[in-house]
Q: What sequence folds into this?
């Protein structure tokens, strides 16, 4: 992982809500903010549209662009920063616990990111399912440190 990517993957949203440095230009749209569902799980949903002009496409792969897996992880990371669990503040990514890539993501795809938060007391886990219109694309688990509000 390059230094720039490492910085992007560990950056915090901060108190001011500024976005960490990121290798992707796609913006996260909050579809449903984090809240407890009817079974008591803290869930959130975001959407990210992968632009055809993303800087990663010319090299991944020339003539057949595929959104890199690390960029899918970054979409989950940014989604988590935009939809923190109630009572958590100042989220900071501390680990990518697991990933499973199921289908490729192409330019123009709209990713739906379904997040489930567990934890508390300054340590939160985020399990995300990422899907495109073609079906499941990835499963990602991240761990965050947080200040409790």
A:
């Amino acid at each position: 992982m390059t230094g720039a990517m490492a910085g992007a993957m560990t950056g915090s949203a901060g108190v001011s809500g500024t976005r960490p440095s990121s290798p992707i230009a796609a913006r996260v749209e909050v579809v449903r903010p984090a809240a407890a569902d009817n079974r008591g799980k803290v869930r959130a949903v975001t959407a990210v549209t992968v632009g055809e002009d993303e800087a990663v496409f010319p090299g991944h792969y020339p003539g057949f662009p595929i959104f890199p897996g690390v960029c899918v992880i970054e979409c989950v990371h940014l989604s988590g920063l935009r939809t923190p669990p109630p009572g958590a503040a100042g989220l900071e990514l501390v680990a990518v616990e697991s990933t499973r890539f199921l289908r490729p993501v192409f330019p123009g795809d709209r990713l739906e990111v379904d997040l489930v938060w567990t934890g508390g007391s300054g340590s939160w886990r985020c399990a995300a399912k990422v899907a495109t219109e073609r079906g499941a694309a990835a499963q990602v688990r991240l761990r965050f440190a947080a200040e409790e509000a």
